[in-house]
# Entry
Amino acid sequence: MRLLERPIVTFTPIDSTPNRQRMPTGSTLSAYKVRFTGNLVVATAVATILEDSPLGYLRGLDLVIGSFPLRSHDALFLYFWNRLVYGTPPRLSAPSGAVGTNAFSAELVIPLEQVDLVGMLPRGFLLDSRGLSGIDVVPTTGTVADIASPGGGSDSLSGLSIQITQVEIPTIAGQLSRMQFSRNAYAIAGTGFFDLPPLPGLGVAYRGIALHFTSGNADPIRATSDDTILTDASAFDSRGIRYYDAVPYEVIRADNKRIYGMESVPAGWVFLDFARLHTLDDLLRTRDRFGGIQNVNVRLNIGSAPANSFVQVYPINALLVGPR
# Structure
């Protein structure tokens, strides 16, 4: 097997805009790598740098096939997902909040391959782009307020650049499975049980569900990750079969760290994992030889609800995977 890695485009992003970039097709794709660089220009007083800056500026980092949204996620999620899948976070250099011009950089991977899963396919979830009408990487940007809070005056950004590199496997072709990511944010009004809207079944095969808990800002992208919100979580299907049954938050996080060999688990994040043995056979299939599952439910036991508490939910499901 041979890998081909090549830069496709480097551009200057425009604030508060979906900066759609068309990618070449005709080969089998393993990943896209995104490098974001620039400067925070602090005007008159020391700025407060937001968590995991400058990633908040990339409010969306989506992958669209034709008109179908295969990946809908933000850079903060990708930073967590890269850490989970690869065991270590990608390179991130936050700006200083000092008065003057302060450089920053961030590197992320949009993995099309699930490198930890084995079985069924020689390599799981590659994307064969032959025959596709088009592939777009869509960085949806924010503003300087997504990177830092000003101490006084008007801060700004300069020298912004996004480079997208495509990683191909020219020696593999054919219909391969795909992994779809989506994102929803829900406000948490108080303590007690909080049921997320049911996830659809009847054919969907779920890899897992990532949850990110934040507080302190009505905009979850600008908020602070919070480990105090969730007490425990349950996941069960419409037949009543349970996959997580009131498992404590820190127990799930400890499993995430152990199973994926993570150096550490970032605050506020937890992954409800349906493939803990790293095999495709463990996916939560909503259609099998026994019939169909109408939906999958997640129940959160909220232990505290500070001001502007939110949970961002990232269901991850496999496409083109047949029933067992």
